[in-house]
C-alpha cells in the first residue's frame, strides 16, 4: 500500500509580516512555518552564491580562512566533532561534491558565524526580521551578548554535502530555532510535541530517526503513531524555516547545502524553556542524589547540581535569572522610547508575558533554595515593577469590560420586563449575535494598546448597537 502523503509545512511570505502576527500565530502556539521573501535580500544571498546559485567557494574560502569550526562525521554518532579551519572544510566539500557517491559524510555544524565575522572585523552578512533576531524577541542571544560577549552564542552556520544529516532531536533548552537556506535543499521531518513520548525509549533516550522502518520496534513500539502525525518540508534556497520549541525534528541535506541557523527564546516560549530547565534540574538531582552525603552541606550539593545543569543545558538557574533580567531591561528600554500603535502593542504583549513569568519564577522553591540565585532574584524583583504598568492597563481594561457587562446585563433585564415571548427570544438571540461577540473579542485584544480610548469606544459601541 502506498504511504499516505505527509502533511506539509505551511508556507507564507515573510515580507512585511508583523512581529505580533508571527508571535501570536506561529511562535506562541508552536506552529512550524516556512517564510519566503526574507533571505533573498540578505547580502550573503549574493556574495555566498555564484550565478548558478551554488556556493561561491572562492569568496567563502577567502572570507573565512583562519576561522575554526566543528566538523562532525555523520557516520560516527556520539563522537565529538573535529575542529577544522573552515576554509579547509569548504575546499574539501567542494571536491567531495564533484564525485557522485559520498563516501564521507562530514558536516560543518554549529559553526559560530557571527562570532567569526566579529573576530575577523567583517559585517555579518544577513539581517533576520526583528521577530527572530531583535533584542526584544531574542533573549537568548541578548543574554549571551550581554553577559559573555565574544563567547559562544546561538547563531550558527551549517555546511554539508549531500547525504549529511542531523538526527532526531529537539533543540537546546527547548528553544525555538530558525534555519535559512542559502544554497541547496534540505528535507525536514517534524513531530508535534504531543507525540514526543513515542520517539523516546524507556530511558527517555530519543530515537535516531522517527522513520518506522529504520527504528527498532522493541525499543520504540509506538513510533508509527509519531510518524502518522509528522509534518514534512523540502526547503529550497531562499526559504527560512521556523522550528518551534519542543518539536522533535530530523533533517537531511539533499544536495550540498549552506544554511544560517539561530536558536532563540522570547515571550512566546520562555515558559517552556523554564519548564524544561526545572525538569532537567530534577533529573540532575535524581541522578546524583546518592552523592548527597559526600557534600559538606545541602547548599553545597544544590550548588553542585547547578554546575551539572549548566554543563548539560548551557544554563543554570542563576543564568536564567540573569537572562530574564536582561530581557526586562530591554522591555523597559523599549517602553521608555515611547512606542506607538502596533509597536506599543507588541512591547506590551512581551511585557505582560515576561512579568507573569518573572513572578512564577520568583515563587519557585528550586530558586529560593539557592543562595547565589536568590541574589539575582532580588535584582529581578527590583526590576519587575518596571514592566508592571502593563498589569495596571489590563486591570483597567478588565474593569471597563466588567462595567460594560454589568451595563449590558441591566439593559437586558430592563428589556426583559418590557418585552415578552417572541421579542424576548429575539433579544436574547441578538445578544449572542456574532458581531457583538467578535467586537468584544477584538476590543479585548486591543485593550493593551488602546488604554483610555477603550472605555469611550465601548461606551459608543454599546449605545450605537442598541
Ligand atoms: O540543518 C540541519 O542539519 C539541522 C538544523 C536544525 O536542527 C535546526 O535548525 O534546528
Ligand atoms: Fe534542531
From TrEMBL:
Entry-linked SUPFAM superfamilies: Clavaminate synthase-like (SSF51197)
InterPro entries in alphabetical order: Cupin_8, JmjC_dom, JMJD6_ArgDemeth/LysHydrox
Protein name as catalogued: 2-oxoglutarate and iron-dependent oxygenase JMJD4 (JmjC domain-containing protein 4) (Jumonji domain-containing protein 4) (Lysyl-hydroxylase JMJD4)
SMART domains noted in UniProt: JmjC (SM00558)
All residue ranges annotated as the JmjC domain in the record: 125-281
Short name of any one Pfam family annotated for the protein: Cupin_8
PROSITE patterns from the UniProt entry: JMJC
Superkingdom per UniProt: Eukaryota
Amino acid at each position: 500500500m502506498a504511504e499516505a502523503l505527509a502533511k506539509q509545512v505551511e508556507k507564507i511570505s515573510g515580507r512585511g509580516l508583523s512581529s505580533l502576527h508571527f508571535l501570536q500565530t506561529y511562535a506562541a502556539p508552536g506552529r512550524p512555518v516556512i517564510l519566503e521573501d526574507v533571505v533573498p535580500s540578505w547580502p550573503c544571498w549574493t556574495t555566498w552564491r555564484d550565478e548558478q546559485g551554488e556556493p561561491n567557494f572562492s569568496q567563502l574560502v577567502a572570507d573565512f580562512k583562519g576561522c575554526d569550526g566543528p566538523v562532525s562525521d555523520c557516520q560516527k554518532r556520539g563522537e565529538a566533532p573535529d575542529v577544522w579551519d573552515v576554509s579547509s572544510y569548504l575546499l574539501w566539500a567542494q571536491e567531495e561534491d564533484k564525485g557522485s557517491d559520498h563516501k564521507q559524510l562530514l558536516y560543518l555544524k554549529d559553526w559560530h558565524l557571527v562570532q567569526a565575522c566579529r573576530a575577523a572585523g567583517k559585517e555579518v552578512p544577513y539581517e533576520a526580521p526583528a521577530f527572530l533576531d531583535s533584542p526584544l524577541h531574542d533573549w537568548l542571544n541578548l543574554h549571551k551578548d550581554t553577559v559573555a560577549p565574544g563567547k559562544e552564542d546561538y547563531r550558527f552556520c551549517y555546511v554539508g554535502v549531500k547525504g549529511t544529516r542531523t538526527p532526531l532531536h529537539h533543540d537546546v533548552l527547548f528553544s525555538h530555532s530558525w534555519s535559512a537556506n542559502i544554497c541547496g535543499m534540505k528535507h525536514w521531518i517534524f513531530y508535534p510535541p504531543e507525540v514526543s513520548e513515542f520517539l523516546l525509549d524507556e530511558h527517555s533516550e530519543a530515537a535516531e530517526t522517527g522513520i518506522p522502518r529504520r527504528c527498532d520496534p522493541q525499543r520504540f513500539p509506538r513510533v508509527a503513531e509519531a510518524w502518522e502525525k509528522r509534518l514534512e518540508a523540502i526547503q529550497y534556497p531562499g526559504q527560512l524555516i521556523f522550528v518551534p520549541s519542543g518539536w522533535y525534528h530530523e533533517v537531511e541535506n539533499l544536495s550540498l547545502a549552506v544554511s544560517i541557523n539561530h536558536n532563540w527564546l522570547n515571550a512566546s516560549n520562555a515558559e517552556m524553556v523554564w519548564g524544561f530547565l526545572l525538569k532537567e534540574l530534577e533529573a540532575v538531582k535524581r541522578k546524583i542524589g546518592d552523592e548527597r552525603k559526600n557534600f559538606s552541606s545541602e547548599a553545597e550539593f544544590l550548588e553542585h547540581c547547578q554546575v551539572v545543569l549548566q554543563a548539560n543545558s548551557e544554563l543554570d538557574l542563576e543564568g536564567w535569572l540573569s537572562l530574564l533580567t536582561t530581557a526586562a531591561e530591554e522591555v523597559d528600554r523599549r517602553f521608555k522610547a515611547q512606542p506607538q500603535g502596533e509597536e506599543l502593542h507588541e512591547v506590551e504583549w512581551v511585557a505582560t508575558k515576561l512579568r507573569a513569568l518573572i513572578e512564577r519564577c520568583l515563587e519557585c522553591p528550586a530558586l529560593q533554595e539557592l543562595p547565589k540565585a536568590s541574589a539575582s532574584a532580588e535584582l529581578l524583583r527590583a526590576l519587575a515593577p518596571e514592566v508592571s504598568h502593563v498589569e495596571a492597563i489590563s486591570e483597567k481594561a478588565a474593569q471597563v469590560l466588567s462595567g460594560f457587562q454589568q451595563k449590558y446585563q441591566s439593559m437586558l433585564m430592563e428589556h426583559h420586563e418590557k418585552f415578552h415571548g417572541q421579542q424576548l427570544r429575539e433579544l436574547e438571540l441578538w445578544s449572542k449575535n456574532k458581531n457583538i461577540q467578535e467586537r468584544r473579542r477584538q476590543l479585548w485584544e486591543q485593550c493593551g494598546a488602546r488604554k483610555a480610548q477603550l472605555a469611550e469606544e465601548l461606551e459608543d459601541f454599546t449605545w450605537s448597537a442598541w
